[in-house]
Amino acid sequence: MTLKKANKIIYLLVLVFFSYISLGYSKVAELRAIDRTTGRTYKLLLPINVETRFANLLIDVKHCYKNPIDKEIENYAYLIIKDILINETVFSGWMFSSSPSLSSLEHPINDIWLLGCKDK
Fold this sequence. Notes:
Helices cover 19% and strands 50% of the residues. The protein is α+β, with helices and mostly antiparallel strands. It is built from 1 helix and 8 strands; from the N terminus they run H-E-E-E-E-E-E-E-E. The mean pLDDT is 81. The longest helix has 23 residues, at 3-25. It has one domain (27-119). The strands form 2 sheets. Strands 2-1-8-7 form a 4-stranded antiparallel β-sheet, with no helix packed on it. The chain has one helix at residues 3-25, and strands at residues 27-35, 41-47, 51-54, 57-66, 75-83, 88-96, 105-106, 110-119. Strand 5 and strand 6 (88-96) form a beta hairpin.
């Protein structure tokens, strides 16, 4: 293998590594969940692209974005939430931390909304 090929491979690996980090895969979404039957609240820290079960719901956070520090505080995440009992998607869309009433999950048993995005 020539030196040029080795440099190209190293450059490609570095590029893949930094794009992996910049796409938000090192982040977790922080959600607030309320169980309406018991009145208990929970703070959930969910990794990106991992289906996580909460009660009878499967929550999959696809993207989670936090604005830089010097800008207005705004976090938004794209979530897909499925109800296991009825085998149906009950929420699919963007949630915004600054406006939880704008797009949150209002389920007969659970309410879920975005609090923020954090680094692992």
